[in-house]
């Protein structure tokens, strides 16, 4: 018998939050008989899964829950989960008494226990979810996301995540492989492995087992029959050793697209950020991996106007962008976050006008690179995993190196690999025709 209880989840932020939301939904369906709805006004339970990385996350959280409280049906409950929940805890209920419960990012496994307890707050960053077997989440049937660790041991001075998700614990390899296998059995052909720093995997397990490496995990996941493509995010440049790069290059199941978060091209700013590597190390790693994987695409994150960033520091960032030739850049102008070490660097703040100008220049530089590189794909043929159907009779999918491709097609192509010859391009995507 189907449930009459409806769950609406609003997910804010990163891919890890998306996966956490999938776990929440699966747990509540299995243990509390909730089914998801896309219509908030129909929901008996509304959950906001928050992200502390967003700009002004606290203001946006209370704005969201205020709107939900006005529009929800009588008797519907509201819960707040995620990193901002970990950060604020009981203060959320103090400021918004209509919130029924708060569950931190490190406590997702407890959702079934707190959902019926008014005023419950579970935010311990010492909680161990690494050995918990979550109910199987229903996801995009062609692609699945699997967490490989919880928490973060890094101390980046602009980031609050370690204080909201706790110390890093790796999930046992057999649990990860089992989850990948279940996803493949449900129809997935691609898996995304998720962690705050995936290539520090294996440094610490809560059951005391011997240390391992991310490279060994990739090798084990690769053995799953029926799995065609492996992606992961995000590796930390500091831990991109030769063993990892060589496995990346030779393992045919690993997608030829890698996210390498630069943050800054200046060694002095990287030191102030506590990133642990230098400009020279980052460039060495990009050169090494590109030399072994010619069709590689590299994406990155960059923060401009970090406290103390001089014009010379900024020019170092532009220099790395020009040398590394990033295929996608997620650009940000620094903004202070409560609870971070960088908040105490206000006396080194870069004037807002200068920061904005640097951001615009960086964006324009990258646009010129894309305008030069994207036309070079025209005439080439790629294997594309078709993932979605568009209203105009086109389907959309991604190549092995994660280029977005549109082509004419029907829902019969969903979940299949097709060869597409590229006929035109924009700055961010390609169009083509299916060929045999």
TrEMBL record:
Q: Which GO terms describe its molecular function?
A: 4 iron, 4 sulfur cluster binding; metal ion binding; tRNA-2-methylthio-N(6)-dimethylallyladenosine(37) synthase activity
Q: Which gene encodes it?
A: miaB
Q: In which residues is [4Fe-4S] cluster 2 bound?
A: 152, 156, 159
Task: State the protein's purpose.
Answer: Catalyzes the methylthiolation of N6-(dimethylallyl)adenosine (i(6)A), leading to the formation of 2-methylthio-N6-(dimethylallyl)adenosine (ms(2)i(6)A) at position 37 in tRNAs that read codons beginning with uridine.
List, alphabetically, the InterPro entries matched. Elp3/MiaA/NifB-like_rSAM (IPR006638), Methylthiotransferase (IPR005839), Methylthiotransferase_CS (IPR020612), Methylthiotransferase_N (IPR013848), Methylthiotransferase_N_sf (IPR038135), MiaB_methiolase (IPR006463), rSAM (IPR007197), rSAM_horseshoe (IPR023404)
Provide the protein name: tRNA-2-methylthio-N(6)-dimethylallyladenosine synthase
Q: What does the UniProt cofactor note say?
A: Binds 2 [4Fe-4S] clusters. One cluster is coordinated with 3 cysteines and an exchangeable S-adenosyl-L-methionine.
Where would I find the TRAM domain in this sequence? 375-436
């Amino acid at each position: 018998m189907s449930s009459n209880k409806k769950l609406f989840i609003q997910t804010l932020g990163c891919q890890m939050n998306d996966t956490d939301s999938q776990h929440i939904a699966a747990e509540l369906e299995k243990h509390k008989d909730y089914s998801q709805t896309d219509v908030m006004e129909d929901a008996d339970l509304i959950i906001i899964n928050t992200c502390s990385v967003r700009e002004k996350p606290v203001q946006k959280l209370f704005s969201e829950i205020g709107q939900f409280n006005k529009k929800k049906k009588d008797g519907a409950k509201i819960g707040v989960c995620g990193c901002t929940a970990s950060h604020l805890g009981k203060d959320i209920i103090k400021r918004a008494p209509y919130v029924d419960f708060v569950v931190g990012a490190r406590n997702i496994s407890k959702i079934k226990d707190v959902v019926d307890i008014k005023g419950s707050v579970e935010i311990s960053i010492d909680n161990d979810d690494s050995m918990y077997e979550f109910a199987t989440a229903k996801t995009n049937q062609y692609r699945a996301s699997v967490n490989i660790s919880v928490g973060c041991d890094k101390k980046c001075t602009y980031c609050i995540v370690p204080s909201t998700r706790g110390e890093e614990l790796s999930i046992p390899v057999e649990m990860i492989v089992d989850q990948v296998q279940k996803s493949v059995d449900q129809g997935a052909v691609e898996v995304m492995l998720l962690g705050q720093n995936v290539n520090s995997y294996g440094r610490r397990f809560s059951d005391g087992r011997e240390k391992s490496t991310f490279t060994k995990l990739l090798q084990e996941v690769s053995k799953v029959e029926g799995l065609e493509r492996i992606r992961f995010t995000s590796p930390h440049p500091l831990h991109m050793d030769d063993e990892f790069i060589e496995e990346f290059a030779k393992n045919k199941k690993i997608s030829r697209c890698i996210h390498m978060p630069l943050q800054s091209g200046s060694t002095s700013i990287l030191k102030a950020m506590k990133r642990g590597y230098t400009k020279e190390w980052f460039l060495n790693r990009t050169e090494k991996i590109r030399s072994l994987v010619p069709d590689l695409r590299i994406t990155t994150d960059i923060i401009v106007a970090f406290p103390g960033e001089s014009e010379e520091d900024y020019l170092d960032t532009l220099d790395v962008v020009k040398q590394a030739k990033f295929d996608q850049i997620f650009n940000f102008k620094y903004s202070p976050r409560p609870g971070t070490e960088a908040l105490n660097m206000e006396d080194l703040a870069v004037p807002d006008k200068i920061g904005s100008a640097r951001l615009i220049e960086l964006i324009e530089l990258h646009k010129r690179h894309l305008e030069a590189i994207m036309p070079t794909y025209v005439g080439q043929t790629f294997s594309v995993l078709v993932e979605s159907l568009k209203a105009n009779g086109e389907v959309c999918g991604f190549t092995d190196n994660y280029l977005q491709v549109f082509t004419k097609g029907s829902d019969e192509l969903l979940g299949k690999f097709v060869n597409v010859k590229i006929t035109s391009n924009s700055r961010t995507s390609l169009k083509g025709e299916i060929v045999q």
